[in-house]
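Lab channel / #folding
Pinned by the channel admin:
"Please post every new chain as: sequence first, then the structure tokens as a reply. Keep commentary short and put observations after the output so the thread stays searchable."

First post following the new format, from NK:
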Amino acid sequence: MSNPARRHKQFVAAQQAIPLREIAAGHPASPYDLLLFQLQQDLLQLKSIESLSRKAEVKRTLLPTYLPWVAGVLAGGSGTQDAILMRMLIWQLDIGDLASALDIADYAIHYDLVPPDSFQRSTACLIAEEVAAVAGRTLLEKRPLDTASLLRAQHLLRGQDMPDQVNARLHKMLGYALRQDGDYQQACLHLKQALTLDPRSGVKTDIKQLEKCLQTEKLPQTVPPNAHGEGGTGQ
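Reply from TO:
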């Protein structure tokens, strides 16, 4: 892990956003280039690992090296395309840290940054797919869904262009999260949106169940004959 002095230099360098063209013009290697070189070495290490769960574990141990750079960019970046930042967005998603990933995603969407060359998807599509994938894994592991992060992702990506099936998947996971929280009305709306976007999204049964719950909630409560201790009409 970086020592405090090195972390500070990375933070300051990220705020200054030194352009790579200055390096090409003969300037000494920048902190960005040095860190990018380290990232390339770490990516080679990850490439040699076949297990996805093991890759995630290794990424979790490697992330602290790059977090000072990420913090610096988010605090005072200029919106320049940044390979380190975008790779950390992917790593944060891979380890399931949605809150940290969405901090980067907000910046990336705002400045229209693109994923690394090895990814053929737009930034918005990548975020939507991976956020939904994290939620899907959470469901399989029978853990509570992160409703706040799913709501934030949906808000952040509103109006962004992506395949309907990807958008549907995000609405589906958000619907499940809201259902988990007891907000059946909003859950039903998001599941219906998922179905509209992708008729094969697999939410028809969920919608029917939610509509039944909502209908039950709207039924007037009947008063038992002796609820007020009157013992009937007496007639």
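NK: Residues 15-21, 221-235 have pLDDT under 50 and may be disordered.
TO: also worth noting, The CA atoms of residues 91 and 97 lie 9 Å apart.
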